[in-house]
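Example 3.2
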Amino acid sequence: MKKSDRLLDIAKSNDIEIIEKHMENSKIEGLYSDNTVLINTFTKEEKYNEILGHELGHHFTLEENNLLEHQYKDLQEFFADAWSYREIIPLQKLAYYKFFDYDVSDILEIENISFEFFCKIFKYYESKYSYSDVEVEDYIINFLPFFNVKKKYWYNNFRRNSY
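Structure, written as tokens:
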């Protein structure tokens, strides 16, 4: 199983124990409680990093690591997902993949994630940044109307010389 060293390092440096355990209910892929992530061994290989990222997201986004009341469950899940998206494929990595024209199947293999999860990551960034030009490291990123990435130095030179 190809596990994300980055996520495992985050867990280790924050004293979060990761336990892989067979659970009879195959619908439960992962759980988080009290600095422990439990991952069902039924979890498919390509979903491992997604589940680990999501459960670590609960650790970093729940207030005092206590579960909130039931009506906030959707908000908890959103925050955990958002944390996971930013950690598994940070915006600068997404820009790098686009700029160097990586094929989606290669990205899925490199990150060990499913196509559905990749789409969720992309939609998250698209909804967050929409029509804005986003500067991250050496890139200028725009999501709408089309996903586009330019090198910052090229973009700045083009704008200066276009008058």
